[in-house]
Amino acid sequence: MTRFTVNDRPVQYRMDPDTPLLWALRDASNLTGTKYGCGTGDCGACTVDIDGEAVRSCQVTIGKTEGRFVTTIEALSPDRGHPVQQAFAADNVSQCGYCIPGMIMAASVLLRRTNDPSDGEIDAAITNICRCGIYPRLRGAIRRAGRIMRGEDTGIGEQGAAAPPPGITPEEAARTVPALGRPAPQPKR
Ligand code: FES
Ligand code: FES
């Protein structure tokens, strides 16, 4: 039994402690916003926040996560209104979208440390790979997210109102999540 906190909920995983966190999140907790790209720690699609650090969840086991606090893209904001999410929408960053949750999680960790990062700090923090090539818009969106956090930007881009539509709440996400929800009733014998 491995115990830690996922999106502010205590979770117990009855899985092999060597199971990569990515698969516990996706398969046991149904938190499929965290993506599988390479499985080798290279692409960053699986990035989550563990105790304030951007971590590639394919590279850490649930055993090593014991007692820690994990935040996934589903709980970054209850309404997809985190400044990074607003900025990505305003700057129309996403193409196929597959890499975006990992990019957003890495960017949110960076901006928590500094809301006015230099290009060098952005490049050092966001080493994620995008097969669609969003890179030209990525730095700009992260800088916009910083401005939103500093109150210098409305989050409205050329696309118009950037306010994203209401998203799934952690409560809604947990409804179908066995590891996060109430224990299922046991069948009567
Ligand atoms: S799936 Fe984890 S880094 Fe690519
Ligand atoms: S938007 Fe398609 S992989 Fe990045």
From TrEMBL:
Residues 152-189 are annotated as: Disordered. InterPro entries: 2Fe-2S-bd, 2Fe-2S-bd_dom_sf, 2Fe-2S_ferredoxin-like_sf, 2Fe-2S_ferredoxin-type, 2Fe2S_fd_BS, Beta-grasp_dom_sf, Diverse_Oxidoreductases. It comes from Sphingobium indicum BiD32. PROSITE patterns: 2FE2S_FER_1, 2FE2S_FER_2. It is an enzyme of class 1 (oxidoreductase). This is Isoquinoline 1-oxidoreductase alpha subunit. GO terms for molecular function: 2 iron, 2 sulfur cluster binding; isoquinoline 1-oxidoreductase activity; metal ion binding. It holds the Pfam family Fer2. Residues 1-76 form the 2Fe-2S ferredoxin-type domain. Gene3D superfamilies: 3.10.20.30, [2Fe-2S]-binding domain. Its EC number is 1.3.99.16. Keywords: 2Fe-2S, Iron, Iron-sulfur, Metal-binding, Oxidoreductase. SUPFAM superfamilies: 2Fe-2S ferredoxin-like, CO dehydrogenase ISP C-domain like.
